[in-house]
Design goal:
six-stranded parallel sheet; single chain
Length: 300
């Protein structure tokens, strides 16, 4: 029997409560050497829902797994039809105050790096440099046969040409860029093969049930070792791909600070969890440090 990946986590009653005190985060950033680990929650203010927060997409949507995608042509048709539609909306998302604050902290030399679990590219769009995309990027597509990597916009053009008139109305968009469509809405969608070898195309992202490339994991572990502290932004840390870095930092005696409105699986390892909206929290911290976002005058 094939095991499904862990998609949910139930908080225990002995977790420390959240706070609204931003001073520990302000002090950590003022010290410098902060490594940021961000999750879907940082992009909700850009109109991209998260998985597990209030109204999160897991309440209505089970993300595609690697095993389903590679094992079923029907699953691939369903995925690409939904993803093709979702890409139009996903591609219009713009960085919010949280992304801009992270970029500003980086410009002012307060960060040692940024690791994101997101596949939306919004950290880079806000101006952050050297971002490690732990789960890959929706901006690229990879062939599972020949390994050719190509731009997503090129695939979007080919899918448009092959599926003229495909204009279904989606019930919602998910953090992985997948639109909520019924089986009937996707029944006639036609998937295109790799233009080089005719193989199966997959978004260059890590699906649930798929492993993050080992070299990428080791690079992130190195970033944790070199950091002064770890600042987690908008991640429930439910899956091990992010939680392992929190555990590594805590075991090394480095402060772990979390900004997330709901409890996380990493709370017991954290110095503090700030239960505030990310845009509000990070803008306030930036003001306290007299760091302007996007060149605007600081108000603090």
């Amino acid at each position: 029997m094939r095991m499904r990946p862990t998609l949910s986590w139930t908080p225990s009653e002995d977790l420390p409560p959240g706070t609204t005190d931003l001073e520990p985060i302000t002090e950590a950033l003022n010290t410098g050497g902060v490594l940021v680990l961000s999750g879907a929650g940082i992009s909700t203010e850009s109109g991209i829902p998260d998985y597990r927060g209030e109204g999160g997409s897991l309440s209505r949507h089970t993300p595609m797994t690697y095993q389903d995608f590679t094992g079923s042509a029907q699953a691939r048709r369903r995925y690409w039809a939904r993803s093709h539609l979702g890409w139009r909306t996903f591609g219009r998302a713009r960085p919010n105050a949280g992304h801009r604050a992270v970029a500003a902290f980086g410009r002012h030399g307060l960060l040692s790096g940024v690791i994101t679990q997101n596949v939306d590219g919004l950290h880079q769009a806000a101006g952050s440099e050297g971002v490690v995309e732990l789960h890959g990027s929706l901006n690229q597509v990879v062939c599972l046969s020949c390994g050719t990597v190509s731009p997503r916009h090129e695939l979007a053009r080919r899918l448009e040409e092959t599926n003229v008139g495909f204009e279904p109305v989606a019930a919602g968009i998910n953090p992985d860029g997948d639109a909520d469509l019924t089986d009937e809405q996707v029944a006639d969608f036609r998937v295109v093969p790799c233009a080089v070898c005719g193989g199966i195309l997959k978004p260059d992202v890590v699906f649930f049930g798929e492993n993050v490339p080992p070299r990428r994991v080791e690079h992130c572990r190195t970033l944790v070792r070199e950091a002064t502290s770890l600042l987690v932004l908008g991640s429930s840390l439910t899956v091990m791909s992010g939680l392992r870095f929190v555990r590594q930092a805590a075991q090394a005696g480095k402060p772990v600070l979390i900004v997330n409105r709901d409890p996380t699986r990493g709370d017991r390892h954290a110095l503090t969890r700030v239960a505030l909206p990310l845009g509000t929290a990070l803008t306030t911290v930036a003001d306290r440090l007299d760091i302007p976002l996007d060149g605007r005058a600081s108000t603090g």
